[in-house]
Specification:
Elements (H helix, E strand, L loop, with lengths): L8 E5 L4 H12 L3 E6 L2 H10 L5 E5 L7 H13 L4 E4 L14 H29 L2 E5 L12 H24 L2 E7 L5 H14 L3 H12 L7 H12 L10 E4 L8
Parallel strand pairs: 1-2, 1-4, 2-3, 4-5, 5-6, 6-7
Helix pairs in contact: 1-8, 3-4, 4-5, 6-7
Length: 258
Amino acid sequence: MDLQLADKVAIVTGASRGIGRSIAQTLGAEGMSLVVAARSRDQLEELAASLKPGRCLPMAVDLREPEAPAAVVAAAVAHFGRLDLLVNNAGATKRGDFLILSEPDWDDGFRLKFFGAVRGCRAAWPHLRTTHGAIVNIVGIGGRTGTAEFAIGGAVNAALLNLTKVLADRGVGDGVRVNAINPGAIGTDRLQTRLRSFAAERQIDLASAETEMARALGIARFGEPAEIARVVAFLASPQAQFCQGAIVDVDGGQTRTL
């Protein structure tokens, strides 16, 4: 299937590792020019060097800062002359007991993942309207199903899912498609940290922990970052023109609610 993404321009936030890095690699392989943003300059430059020369602009920024998302958008347009896609992927939230999580913990969770996306969408919107472009928000299944140890993440994700619907409604008139992906348990560094804790609590090895955790989540296996990236590429493409406000759970069947 030709996704018709060649020579278009995308911004991918949180691109230094994990899901974001895989998204950037997949979009680059489809012929897109990229602006990749995260805090780690070394990892971004390594990523840029692995892609086609001259087709990737790394930007080491902290998207918690109010001015940073607009600066990334401005750099993309200045460097490549247009913008066709914004992938909001940046943001990790602290797990823990609701009664222990602090005000700064809550503030940090919303500042990066939610308000970073809000500001990025606001800055990108006029350019995406011009190109009839797209936004893909990488959210998470915790926004659909609340759990006690994921209070901040669940609240942030639910807000971002609602924002997706709000912007999709606006996008019908403006010609901007806005969709979201809810990853489940994906094999990233963050999941490895959880696995090590899971193994230590149960005094088992990592291989056994992986099997037991997957079983506890009701899935056959953990996902791979590339499996999220391929869905992003589809939603970004003209092949998905009738997807507007879609929320796609890519979670191995973990989400069983409507």
